[in-house]
Amino acid sequence: MAKLFVALDFDNEEKALEICQKSKNYIDGYKIGLELFCSCGKDIVNKVAEFGEVFLDLKFHDIPNTVIKTIESIAKLPVSIINLHALCGSYTMGIVKDSIKGINPNCKVIGVTMLTSVDNNILKSLNFNSCNVGEQVDILAELVYNSGLDGIVCSPQEVIKVKKKFGNDFLTIVPGIRQNTNEKDDQKRVATPKEAVKNGADILICGRPIYNAKDIKQVILDIKNEMGDIYAR
Ligand code: C5P
Question: Which residue among 6, 60, 160, 232 is least crowded, i.e. fewest CB within 10 A of its CB?
Fold first, then answer.
């Protein structure tokens, strides 16, 4: 069964913990990103972990020595998922995976492929060889898989292909979840919860549609219901 995590994209502990409190009985986990981590420090991870599973989404992208030492430091926290950019390369990804095993053996290490806010036009402006975002995800997913990581972050639209190629055990974590796909905000490659689950996504990440809602509980239940629909058939 796919899980639903809420992205705690805030700059203060009070707001983040308020969302945790309101959602703790309905949500599967929480994503702590750069904004909250940089504003509140490591302690926020301990506090959020009291409400559920934590995906620490800091998307590291630096030289091997820096990424490896930093990840070794944060892996001691109560986190079940951490990530780094696939663009770090297979050397860094391989060493990170090995060293995490000794520090936090149950922690999954995920590679970020192309951000869900990136589309073909952005790739074109960066002068990538292929200006097709799906092709770039394919290349990076293969790199992540061959480096021995547990899965990737990708858009809901790429999940089918990734699962077909790398199998069900290779986790797909998908942001860009919108009940109404016309309300994209700054996302480009979005899908409904139902489509994402149907495509085979393992963890759906949803931020603004949940934490900006007037009735957070109801939105979570609606999304969960949509996700569960697939299994009821
Ligand atoms: O508010 P929204 O649902 O768009 O939030 C999506 C969350 O997922 C944000 O915290 C964003 O940083 C994160 N994310 C993403 N695309 C990726 C990786 C992470 O949107 N490729």
Answer: 232
Q: Who contacts 21 (Cβ-Cβ below 8 Å, separation ≥6)?
A: 51
Say how many Å lie between the CA of residue 171 and the centre of ligand 1: 17
Cα–Cα distance, 36 to 45 (Å, whole number) = 9
Q: In whole angstroms, what is the distance from residue 118 CA to residue 95 CA?
A: 28
- 187 CB under 6 A from ligand 1? yes
For this structure, is 31 an active site residue?
no
Using alpha carbons, select from 45, 196, 48, 27 the residue that is nearest to residue 58. Answer: 45
pTM of the predicted model, to two decimals?
Answer: 0.91
- CATH, range 3-232: 3.20.20.70
Atom of ligand 1 nearest to the CA of 33: 10
Ligand 1 atom with least separation from CA of 186: 4
Q: Distance between CA atoms of 170 and 150, rounded to whole angstroms? A: 6
For each successive 10 residues of the chain (233 residues), what is the average pLDDT?
96 98 96 98 98 97 94 95 95 94 95 86 82 86 96 90 95 92 79 94 96 96 87 44
How much is the pLDDT for 229? 62
> Does the C-beta of 133 come closer than 6 Å to ligand 1?
no
Tell me the C-alpha distance between 80 and 68, whole Å.
17
Residue bearing the CA closest to ligand 1, atom 15? 175
Distance (Å, whole) CA 143 – CA 186: 27
- 3, 31, 42, 59: the active-site residue: 59
